[in-house]
Amino acid sequence: MTMSAAAQAQEASPGPEAEATETTATPAEATAPEALPASGDSAEPELVITGSRLSSRGFNQPTPTTTITLDDIQKAAQPNLFATIRQLPSLLGSSGRTTRVNSTSSGQQGLSSFSLRGLGEVRTLTLLDGQRVTPANFIGVPDISQFPQLLVERVDVVTGGASASYGSDAVGGVVNFITNKRFEGVRANLLTGITTYGDDKNVTAQLAWGGKLADDRLHIQVSGEYGYEQGLPHGDFGVSGGVNGRDWYNAAAFLTRPNSATVDGRPKYFYIEGAQQYQYAKFGLINSGPLQGTAFGANGVPFQFQYGSNGVPLGNGQVSGCFSPFCVGGDLSGQIGESPSIASRIERMVGYSRAGYDIDARTEVFATVTLARVLSRNFPNMGAERPSLTIQCDNAFLPASIRTACAANNITSFGFGTSTGQFPDPIKVNTKRDQQRYVLGINGRFDTGATEWRYDAYGAYGISDIAVDVSDISLQPHFNAAIDAVAGPNGTIVCRSAVARAAGCVPFNVFGDVQNSAEAFAYVIPENGPRQRSKQEQTVVAFNVTGEPFSSWAGPVALAFGIEGREEKYRTTADPYGNGIGPASPTSALYPADPLLNTTIGNNWYAGNYKSGKGRYGVREAYAEVNFPFLKSEMLGEANLNAAIRVTDYSTSGTVEAWKIGGVWETPIDGLRFRAVTSRDVRAPNLSELFAAQIVTNATVIYRGNSINVQNRATGNTDLDPEIARNTEVGVVLSNPGWLPGFSASFDYYDIKIGNAIIALSNQQIVDLCEAGSQDQCAKVLLDSPIPGTNYVEVSAFNAANIKTRGFDIELSYRMPLSGVGLPGTFTLRALGTHVIEYVTDPDVIGAIPTDTAGVNGLVGGGTIPDWKALFTQSWDTDKFSLNISERFVSDGVYSNEWIECQTNCPVATNQHPTVDDNSMDGALYVDIGGSYNLTEQVSAYFRVDNVFNKDPEPNPLTGVGPGINPFLYDVLGRVFRLGVRATF
């Protein structure tokens, strides 16, 4: 993929909505994407510079901006534009259809959104034609899959704070999609693809039309697109050889010893492969008591479980040679780490139209409509691991030999764990996101004296309706009652509890590979699983004015000012079994009252315990921005000062100010300029952080040396205040010097500090702090409950943290004609790289220490911010064909910067600084190739092969069972082939 660093204050092609951007490309690369002819003979070009509200010829903004042009988009040949942009090195930690695939309860499966600088999606402002877009989730971020992508002419990525210009959320920067608003003709694209494993089949069909009517005053653009990405099927139990032949899964994990055990000079963590969670087996394992080590197989026949590490059960829940929760090797048939789907299935349907009418040569009124639907499906895991069950020895499903052994050992019960291999189907999460967005606006020009002013105003209203439905998932109280079975009359087997029997309980045999009745499955896994219905609404009105009211001794002074009002609100309702039965979630025919269920807090499902909630906030803003040229000299060059201020009033937290000040110095040295900017940026807490009802997900923590399954109970906090950030960037640009035509380069250093940052401690951090004696944190946990599924950790966001990150971006490009060597066309080399020096988060909580996640490649330590991320492209372009090669690079890293690597003579491990035998994780280099051939002047065929050498992802070990990959940094699909045809008439 070719990433242009397009024009420095380029001259836009004519039209009221033509845009330009200030970056680092050569003039040869600075041509506008397509001529956007104006209506009316007297119309003049307008300059709109992303990262600034100013519109002024000759204005070089101090904030670095990288542009992805239409040519870049076409060469990348991706079924979703999100995948093209995500490759930019400055985008770190962006979500997509390969992330959160093992999640049932997050509600973010299949959501595609950007994260700049690794600061998270909520600190990146994503715009469409400079306008906010209706969020697709109550964390406040849009879904790029719902954008009209065929009419996008370029995407500007501002890698610096832009709150003063664009408002809240632009702490990490801005991603602005810019459409062709004067497109005329027909544009079509058809793309299909498949992986080398024969899966993830995909098809994209896009069609757009644009034309002029009413004496060329009415301009209409209409586009429709359909995209389908099949995703990957779920895996299986154990280490099965991989989904459709992906044999890279090796059950990597960290064998974990208690801190107290490390007095022997050996590490706390050992990297292992073939991790065996010895607390459960596929069809059941007695995991404590004198019968520990007895597993159940075909037809429920008991057998001696094969522990890894030559382990021997000790009768107390532990295994010699193993440390909770793992042995190494042995019987891995109950391992569930390979079972989640690697990529969600996505189906996207987007319709978009824009109509603009020129009232006169200087005024246009316009309206846009976007209707979008995105469907996704993922499979979080097979079965349902339950490591902490208690079984009574008189259970009627137990083989006679086990009942006899119980009597011989004088016990009436034993500990039991299973990954419930009897369940025939994996959990399925189906998500539907519907969006309606309507915009009505006006833009134009007016004069006051000798000054011409440009203005734009718009009102937007958007609704996102989100539906989440989970199927093939068990209802915990039903499962617990059904497996506790006793002998009934006439040789029958019934549920022990009389209350459960009266409520329709059907016994379920959990011992071995046995066949349960359809009625038993229907009782344990009801047809109507967890569900959530949400409505997200956004209303925006904005008015902006820009002009050049006077001139200084060095040139015209540009001024912009404006106001904006916004309201965000959401409401969500959940099923009563997950939410708890109450006014917001009553029982119904689908979810009848049941005496076994917890009617207070809900949480009755194995996972997917959604909650009902609502919230709203309003925003009122006013801003002003000025560009003041103060130097123009043949000897010293030219320089300008750019400054902006914005005052924002939040209904939830009061008034805050954002500002920026910076400048650009065009030196007298050919093509050389310096730029610098510092800003105060703000981010208000979003609806989720403020008002989210409890979100419950399953998790695993290490407590007192043991692995414990817990519920993560996350809630909102209405007392949150806005974050305040200080963002500073200093850079140098060399653009098309006379001594090397076609060459450009830039270097930009950035330093971002966020105070009062909104964060939430992880489950493990809370548990560690509790274990270290923090009573505040201990009040948030329950870790010793004997009742399965009731241990929990409560998590909520708070304003205490300080975040600091710094690093630098490098961009190089060289373009040369090939006529000198007797070949047609041009050859272009380009390189973009981001180096993160540090990314330190200080929770400012007693007992917690600052952590640095820069250079951490493993998810156990953060895993979204490598030391280096880079993109290299080489392209040969002619009038007839093009060929391109690109390389995506992620540097080597560590699992955690707070871990101490040692093999012997290790210090005693602490929770803050544990020891590990190997703290290195390899990076990756992926090679992609593509090309196109013009069949006619209007039609071209193209191809793309991603990950040409089919490089496998690096193992991603965790302290619990997981999918074993880090999709934020590594390619998890393998080699992908794509073919397509596009046409423009």
UniProtKB/TrEMBL annotation:
<protein>
    <submittedName>
        <fullName>TonB-dependent receptor</fullName>
    </submittedName>
</protein>
<feature type="domain" description="TonB-dependent receptor plug">
    <location>
        <begin position="60"/>
        <end position="174"/>
    </location>
</feature>
<keyword id="KW-0812">Transmembrane</keyword>
<keyword id="KW-1134">Transmembrane beta strand</keyword>
<keyword id="KW-0675">Receptor</keyword>
<comment type="similarity">
    <text>Belongs to the TonB-dependent receptor family.</text>
</comment>
<dbReference type="GO" id="GO:0009279">
    <property type="term" value="C:cell outer membrane"/>
</dbReference>
<feature type="region of interest" description="Disordered">
    <location>
        <begin position="1"/>
        <end position="44"/>
    </location>
</feature>
<keyword id="KW-0472">Membrane</keyword>
<dbReference type="Pfam" id="PF07715">
    <property type="entry name" value="Plug"/>
</dbReference>
<dbReference type="InterPro" id="IPR036942">
    <property type="entry name" value="Beta-barrel_TonB_sf"/>
</dbReference>
<keyword id="KW-0998">Cell outer membrane</keyword>
<feature type="compositionally biased region" description="Low complexity">
    <location>
        <begin position="11"/>
        <end position="38"/>
    </location>
</feature>
<dbReference type="InterPro" id="IPR012910">
    <property type="entry name" value="Plug_dom"/>
</dbReference>
<keyword id="KW-0798">TonB box</keyword>
<dbReference type="InterPro" id="IPR000531">
    <property type="entry name" value="Beta-barrel_TonB"/>
</dbReference>
<feature type="domain" description="TonB-dependent receptor-like beta-barrel">
    <location>
        <begin position="420"/>
        <end position="948"/>
    </location>
</feature>
<dbReference type="InterPro" id="IPR039426">
    <property type="entry name" value="TonB-dep_rcpt-like"/>
</dbReference>
<dbReference type="Pfam" id="PF00593">
    <property type="entry name" value="TonB_dep_Rec_b-barrel"/>
</dbReference>
<keyword id="KW-0813">Transport</keyword>
<dbReference type="InterPro" id="IPR037066">
    <property type="entry name" value="Plug_dom_sf"/>
</dbReference>
